[in-house]
């Protein structure tokens, strides 16, 4: 029998995924499900990082491409590309990622805040960085990723 570990203030479980060469993570509680890429319907007049919307079992879900959100080159989708469905402010939202790599636990003491030298986009979008197996994993701040400061205002 496998012992289930509960999330505690000192130990939290994350879904880890890749965006380009960067590993990122979301708290497991923020993730509803992970799906293969569905046909995406473009919506004119929305922010450039919003790819459009998908129909998931009768529900219309907006989809954000995290590569576009972080101003990265956007290659064609491949067999490992996934959409992570998250729940935020009462609605489901899809996040396009290059691949989901693992689910893991991280001790809070192993999470460092973003460096001061990062620009505002980088600092605001990450709660911190965890070092796991000699790799740095950026823990995303969903609020700032989904609702970025509008530079044009």
From TrEMBL:
CheW-like domain residues: 11-151
UniProt xrefs under Gene3D superfamilies: CheA-289, Domain 4, SH3 Domains
Any one Gene Ontology BP term: chemotaxis
SMART domains: CheW
GO cellular component: cytosol
Protein name: Chemotaxis signal transduction protein
InterPro entries named among the record's database cross-references: CheW (IPR039315), CheW-like_dom_sf (IPR036061), CheW-lke_dom (IPR002545)
UniProt source species: Schinkia azotoformans LMG 9581
């Amino acid at each position: 029998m496998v012992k289930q570990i509960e999330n505690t203030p000192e130990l939290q479980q994350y879904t880890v995924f890749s965006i380009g060469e960067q590993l990122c993570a979301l708290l497991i509680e923020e993730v509803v499900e992970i799906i293969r890429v569905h046909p995406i319907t473009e919506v004119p007049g929305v922010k450039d990082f919003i790819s459009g919307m998908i129909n998931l079992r009768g529900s219309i879900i907006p989809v954000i491409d995290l590569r576009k959100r972080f101003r990265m080159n956007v290659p064609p989708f491949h067999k490992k590309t996934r959409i992570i469905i998250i729940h935020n402010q009462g609605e489901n939202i899809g996040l396009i990622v290059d691949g989901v790599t693992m689910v893991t636990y991280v001790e809070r003491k192993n999470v460092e805040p973003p460096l001061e030298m990062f620009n505002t986009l980088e600092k605001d979008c990450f709660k911190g960085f965890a070092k796991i197996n000699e790799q740095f994993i950026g823990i995303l701040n969903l609020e700032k990723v989904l609702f970025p400061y509008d530079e044009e205002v």
